[in-house]
Amino acid sequence: MTKQYNAADIEILTGLEPVRKRPGMYTNTSNPNHLAQEVIDNSVDEALAGYANHIEVILHLDGSLSVRDNGRGMPVDLHPEEGISGVEVILTRLHAGGKFSNQNYQFAGGLHGVGVSVVNALSSRLEVTIKRNGMLYQMSFAQGEKTSELKVIGTVGQRHTGTTVRFWPNPSYFDSPHFSIAALTYLVRAKAVLCAGLTMTFSDENTGDQQQWFYQDGLATYLLEQLSPATALPEVPLMGHFAGTTEAVDYALLWIIDGKPIAESYVNLIPTPQGGTHVNGLRSGLLEALREFCDYRHLLPRGVKLAAEDIWEHCAYVLSVKLADPQFAGQTKERLNSRACATFVAGVVRDAFSVWLNQHVEMGEQIAEWVIQQAQKRLRADKKVIRKKVTNGPALPGKLADCTLQEMKQTELFLVEGDSAGGSCKQARDRTFQAVMPLRGKILNTWEIETSEVLASQEVHDIAIALGIDPGTDSLTELRYGKVCILADADSDGAHIATLLCALFVKHFRKLVAEGHVYVATPPLYRIDVGNTVYYALNDEEKQGILDRIAAEKKPGFIHIQRFKGLGEMNPLQLRETTMARETRRLIQLTLTDNDPTDSIMDMLLAKKRSPERKIWLEQKGNLAMTTIQPA
Ligand SMILES: Nc1ncnc2c1ncn2[C@@H]1O[C@H](COP(=O)(O)OP(=O)(O)OP(=O)(O)O)[C@@H](O)[C@H]1O
């Protein structure tokens, strides 16, 4: 007899249980560094808000880590609704925080009210000591549960305030229980660089080493320290600073002639190793200003057009953005998603760099010359794609709207679900480098079809012709586009279509995937309007997160939620902004490595005889399939 499946089987995780059950959703579980980062970020937020100027990080002999700041101290009074102290709420409740509105912190790395509770949940012990109101308070926890009440253990001077959190990471949640000292040192130092006037100290009791950093004019000195002894243009980094009411940007950059450029970006002092919209904005701002400079002074040789990579590959930069309301790709905050930030940074950088170029014409021309050389190298290396219809060889499919650019690497082919969405995409695209081919309905499931036979399907045939390569081929010399982007609706039908296309590429155009040419575009499912602000959400979870924030911030205005039933419902401007424009879209790159589970997962998803297994998988994990993907 099959087991009954009733409402009683639906579990609701309470308190910190969700974190212990799925630690990977809340932190990076390779080592406990991200826990340290959460605690340090809270202290840094106090410094950003102007209440702390010294943060000490101590790695103890017993493997625990302390973070001490001289901020306001966590609130110790009783929480009006929870009836327990502020400290206890902070450490034991998810989604409890003082940063949802901008009243206590203007710019903060903390957003979700989750960070330090995650640290508590994943630590075998945690001790918090607070100096506030002339008293010294302490409270302890084990495995996230309190082991002693908040109590006064001494007195301090009235003006002495601050928080110390000491935690012992629970090794069972991490691949390695040890902190990576190098990464931690780097992080601590970066905080000092990015927050002028903040002293950061790092001590390691195992070695007796103690290091301290203080930068009054952080970015430029830091960049030069990192780069020496490379030859650079200009010798003194270009610096920029601009602050609005809800956004601020600081950067230092230069071009490296020999040596490896460093590329670091931060949002509210949190490192974003995967970049995001702020970095895209910096790149396009630089490119636009230099293009304008070259055009105005007629510096470009015939046939050379500057591309983003020409200016970018050798650019060393430190970019620090502060935003009142940043949107990240997840709790580890490695990539910024806030779309408006791309336009903000691009605008600031373009204007500032233009002014600089015109004030330093000689150096400007040297930079332009160097970047033009990079473009010429690229053009020599790139193979040309003949964009006109070829007379010998098969004609391109009639429904393909091709792009005009000849450099293969720069171009993109969007394979789009449905004719109407295809039409919108054609209006939304940048026709110089984006080609669009609409696909009608679901393509054939080619997972179990011989490569020699897939061309019998008209759709597959058209895709192969558009790409310029044959199924099963190992040679990409005839490839016509640098990126192939699968674009389907954000619903389950769309996910099915995207899966069928992924199967086609993994099975029959494997080299294309292995060399990183295939991407899945991620259009949003919802648009949320409050007053003049527009948010886009990829899925229900993201929508809920946005609604929670709107409620917590008590944003005025009627909330209007639009669910896009399909891509065709978005107007071309929305489609461009959310899905196609390089600065603001999210693409997920398909990758293949030796021994990865791609083939077995695809087989489970698509093989005819594995349908019973598929059913079980759909019941257990189907809901995760749309939400766990991380943008590349
Ligand atoms: N060192 C500190 N000094 C003062 N207040 C603190 C300190 N650490 C935490 N807090 C308070 O506790 C709240 C909850 O912290 P927590 O780390 O859980 O979430 P967060 O920083 O708001 O958001 P995120 O989950 O994105 O890190 C903070 O919003 C802040 O109000």
From TrEMBL:
One of its GO terms (biological process) is DNA topological change. It holds the Pfam family HATPase_c. PROSITE patterns: TOPOISOMERASE_II, TOPRIM. HAMAP family: ParE_type1. One of its GO terms (cellular component) is chromosome. It comes from the Bacteria. The record marks 445, 496, 614 as: Interaction with DNA. This is DNA topoisomerase 4 subunit B. Its cofactor is Mg(2+). ATP binds at residues 5, 42, 69, 110-116, 333. Heterotetramer composed of ParC and ParE. It is an enzyme of class 5 (isomerase). The keyword Flavoprotein does not apply. One of its GO terms (molecular function) is DNA binding.
